[in-house]
Write a structure and sequence with these properties.
The protein is an alpha+beta fold and 174 residues long. The protein has two domains: 116 residues, Alpha-Beta Plaits, CATH 3.30.70.940; 48 residues, SH3 type barrels, CATH 2.30.30.30. Helices cover 20% and strands 41% of the residues. The chain has three helices and twelve strands. The strands form three sheets. It has a five-stranded antiparallel β-sheet, with no helix packed on it. A four-stranded antiparallel β-sheet has the order 2-5-1-6, with helices on one face. Strand 9 and strand 10 form a beta hairpin. The radius of gyration is 23 Å and the shape is elongated. The N and C termini lie far apart (52 Å). The model has no long low-confidence stretch (mean pLDDT 83).
Length: 174
């Protein structure tokens, strides 16, 4: 069996995954269709003052299918609702290379204890401090530390630039 990439409707990846596996069972092709993967990661973000953990697709609009390619499996894939076509030249299925498959498997098996923080700031951005002792001060992002969820901001206090270390949710873009 080899791995192939299939284009699907964006936002319908899990539904297509379930449909494909169900159809393979119904037609008795479980031995020809192996795994069907939709890769995603958990992302933590602050919206409206509340912390949310959301799941974000690593490859939106694509599903990875392990299968034995022949006419019957090609037809099964193409006729599953929500599936567009295979990724490859002129819609001809091209299997993934071994290195790509290994990388995908590592990504699929990666179990995250903590969701990844989504910090929407970069060095040089102008920001306004929303909370803390420097509330309502404006500053410039000097450093972003995504692992700790911190942002170093340079704020002008009494005419002097002063570096301040803040949590990422304490600042907002200007």
């Amino acid at each position: 069996m080899q791995w192939y990439v299939v284009r699907v409707q964006t936002g319908k990846e899990e539904q297509v995954q379930a449909n494909l596996l169900r159809r393979a069972r119904e037609v008795g092709m479980e031995q020809k269709i192996g795994k069907v993967l939709v890769l995603s990661e958990k992302v933590s973000e602050i919206r409206g003052g509340a912390k949310r953990v959301t799941e974000r697709k690593s490859y939106p609009g694509y599903v990875f299918v392990e299968m034995e390619l022949d006419d019957s499996t090609w037809f099964l894939i193409r006729e599953t609702p929500g599936i567009g076509d295979f990724v490859g030249p002129q819609m001809k299925p091209v299997p993934l290379e071994a290195g790509e498959v290994d990388r995908l498997m590592v990504e699929a098996e990666k179990v995250e204890e903590k969701p990844k923080l989504q910090i929407n700031f970069k060095v040089g951005d102008g920001v306004k401090i929303k909370e803390g002792p420097f509330q309502n001060f404006d500053g410039v992002v000097e450093e972003v530390i995504p692992d700790k969820g911190l942002v170093n901001v340079v704020v002008t206090i009494f005419g002097r630039p002063t570096p301040v270390e803040l949590e990422y949710w304490q600042v907002e873009n200007l």
